[in-house]
Amino acid sequence: MSNPLLEFQGLPPFSQIHPDHVESAIEQLLSESKQQIDQLATHIRDATWDNFIEPLENIQDRINKVWSPVSHLNAVMNNAALRTAYNNCLAKITEFHTELSQDKRIFNAYYAIKKGSEFVQLNIAQQKTINDALRDFHLSGIDLPAEKQQRFKAIKQQLSKLTSTFSDNVLDATNAWKKIITDEAQLAGLPDSAKAMAKQTAEHNQHSGWMLTLDFPSYYAVMSYADDRELRKEMHDAYVTRASDQGPDAGKWDNSEIMAEILALRHELALLLDFNNYAEYSLATKMADSTDRVIHFLHDLAARSRPYAQKDLDAVKQYARQHHNIETLQPWDIAYYSEKLRQHEYAITQEELKPYFPEPVVLGGLFEIVKRLYGLHIKQVDNVETWHKDVKFFEISDDHNQVRGRFFIDLYARANKRGGAWMAECIGRKKQNHDIQTPVAYLTCNFSPPIGDNPALFTHNEVLTLFHEFGHGLHHMLTQVDYISVSGINGVAWDAVELPSQFMENFCWEKESIDLIARHYQSGESLPSDLFEKMTAAKNFQSGMQMVRQLEFALFDFRMHMEYDPAIGDRIQDTLNEVRQEVAVITPASYNRFQHSFTHIFAGGYAAGYYSYKWAEVLSADAFAKFEETGIFNRQTGEEFLHAILEQGGSREPMELFVEFRGREPTIDALLRHSGIAA
Ligand code: ZN
């Protein structure tokens, strides 16, 4: 098997990616690229878009296409050899990018084009490419004196290593913990599917009985359903102390010092560039224009939501006391009694809904929604090489049979696959010699796998996650921008990038669209209307508590970076405690170290940017409100969203695009209404 379509565009076959060869291939590629850049740099004086920027973008695109499958395999088919090769290459790639971002010759060429007569004749996307590049050059310390530039480079490299070690520690700590159950009675309360999954995990590990792990589906099932309070506590303790100084593996993969070092280095980096702190540095590339505005935005939402969150918590407490004689609700009780209360009030469980969300129906329905909204067709392509037998490959085309994008989809949790769900760029769109390079996406989830001969059955939460990531995928794949730096999700401000993804989630809550994605896997019957009504009634169950939890993460992240003071050192736990004091309603266990596995901000791109989720929710809720006003499958509104948002990528400012679609700036009303938090 092979990928002629992808190899034609420069993507190496997955089967040819061997840890032994990765390093030399990357080294050679980087050295060739450096030579090409040196050659380009000799034309600085007469630099134009065509003789300078386009070839430079092509060099970087070639590196991305070789690196993307390596980095992807490291995330989804991890092993010791690949991890070592990946980390070694990562250091080299980071060094390459850092050098490029500090190359005065390149900076001067961009600057000359910006100041030259050609600039005004370039189109908006090209101008944005140049403006973004100049901004990023500035942020990469191009104006710094040599000595500071040296320090800047060292910090960047050190941060790249530390963040990678941070996430390796989380993965190792997650994989290390296992519990074998030999007496089925200990699993009382667990739904059959969760038990079957635990049995299958045990079998795969050559054990009899059932095996519980800290993979999210296994952990979540126990926390929500296991009657055995001790078992819940044991798993809770292991989960919330991963990679920390606490818990069953205390000190073994402890991220404490790594986190302190990451914060210190980020702060130093921000100061080098004349920002007051790393939060300011983070906002330089975002839609939000000041730290004050972000803090005010989060406090505003927190103040409005906290009373609702308190009511939510009181309801669980009262329920546990009245119906189960639990006087004091412990952290490992909350999900469990919440689930019981949800069943009590709405008589509905994620488990009851699962038979209605078999994978083929969900995927087929999702594709039908895309067809109705945007007139696009999605079909599976067989005989394409992937990295695992469970992975499928699809193609999106329009009414004129023009292929718009392609994607891999890898849905199930398995060992050595990083947790969570994400969309990543495999190939980006660009135009070269009148040819279009078709975008390709990786869509990765960690859902419960099929059991036996049945199709995989998804919880409604999993369906939401799939729609979310697919929204990112559409943003990446449907772009019509011809320049790689601003096509798809490239060049989109972080706090606006969740607009298309969160927007898609809305279609998991409307009767009209649910009918397309839900059908019983055995009887073929649609989701019964009483179940649908219960489901929507339950939608905002504990939405206050969920809102303040997200705000807790966002405020913690933002304040930790904004308030960092080298004279004091890291105040990670203190800041977290203060934030909880202000916004949270649940008091976690004193040994809870959730921050030690908070990869979004310590190892991902969300540092001083976690608030972006809420910021973008405001945008997506308000955008969907236009569909509520005109009909959720209104083709014209769909076309407007496609043209104003999805196709534009990062070629224009997000506020400008939003106003073009909505006819005005965003307001928070729709988000509060959708969350059931409105006076
Ligand atoms: Zn997302």
Give an account of the 3D structure.
The protein is α+β, with helices and mostly antiparallel strands and 679 residues long. It has four domains: 4-143, Endopeptidase. Chain P, domain 1 (Glutathione S-transferase Yfyf (Class Pi), Chain A, domain 2), CATH 1.20.1050; 177-240, no CATH class; 256-348 and 543-610, Neurolysin, domain 3; 355-537 and 613-674, Neurolysin, domain 3, CATH 1.10.1370.40. 57% of the residues lie in helices and 7% in strands. The longest helix is centred in the middle third of the chain and has 34 residues, at 291-324. It starts with a helix and ends in a 5-residue tail after the last helix. The mean pLDDT is 94. It binds zinc ion (ZN).
Average pLDDT score: 94
| Number of individual domains | 4
Q: Could you describe the largest sheet, including whether it forms a barrel?
A: 5 strands, mixed
The proportion of residues in beta strands is 5-15%
Which fold name is given in CATH as the topology of the largest domain? Neurolysin, domain 3
Q: Calculate Rg over CA atoms.
A: 25 Å
